Amino acid sequence: MELERQSFALQNCIEEAIDIVAVNASEKGLRLGYSFENDTPLVIIGDPARLRQILVNLLGNAVKFTEKGEVSVSLSSLMLEGSSYDIHFAIRDTGIGIPQNKADRLFQPFSQVDASMARKYGGTGLGLAISKRLVEMMNGRIWAESEAGKGSTFHFTIQVESTSEEYIDPGNAGKSSDLPKIGLDNDFSPDLSILLAEDNTVNQKVTQKMLKKLGFRADVAANGVEVLQALERQAYDIVLMDVQMPEMDGLEATKAIRQKCSDGPKIIAMTASALKGDREMCLDAGMDDYICKPVRIQDLARVLKRYQSLAQI
After folding, report:
1. How far apart, in whole angstroms, are the C-alpha atoms of residue 81 and residue 83?
2. What percent of the chain is predicted at pLDDT more than 90?
3. Which of 3, 136, 160, 163 is the most buried if burial means most Cβ atoms within 10 Å?
């Protein structure tokens, strides 16, 4: 195998890998999410296809061996010399875990923890061995931390170069992506008060980290009922409203808010669907704007910039 060298957006690679396992995760009711530490480079030079292959192998295993709870990816980085970085990926699950005395079999070709695994879950036992080989080709290492019955965390590192070049999204007809330009230099007002309505704890943490990177903090509500309770306690400039929530969903909560106070907070829908009918449904319910999920930091920045003048009122 030979590795390619090209410029690519790290966030896109993560999201593409998550998209591949999302259907299986959804069928099991698992939560999926990812997070970046602030100093992680956004655009790097490397082989996106091979990195995505590693992530899909590890995420696929995490989903396969997890019956309830969540699977998440977190990234951190260590700056080396010049523009080089050591990037650390951690894929965590709340699955069945691995007994300590059998962990040494994990990265051996055609090997699984025990024979019953192959019968129950399938697989050839090659995925982790291939991932190990690819990681080593990227000058990194791979290892696992696990405890039977308490889930697993698979770690791997790769060495890459960051680049200041603008990433060109092949699906965007040559338009330059503004992904590398989003940072702490935005002229936002830090006084903008935000309520984040999201029932998924992984998504809560991911969105809060994005907001923090943009210079904001947000209070959190886990469903529409908690949103109404929070608005009784204090006023907010913006509510970032997940559409799908238990007890009371985002549409119901929005209608209740607008019936009580038509000139209340700006309500921004966070919806997994970008279909025209779904957008209109959000706006008809009284929402002011929408962001597609998974939420991207540049989309969050744009919508907050649009309404930042509210903090001056």
Report:
1. 6
2. 39
3. 160
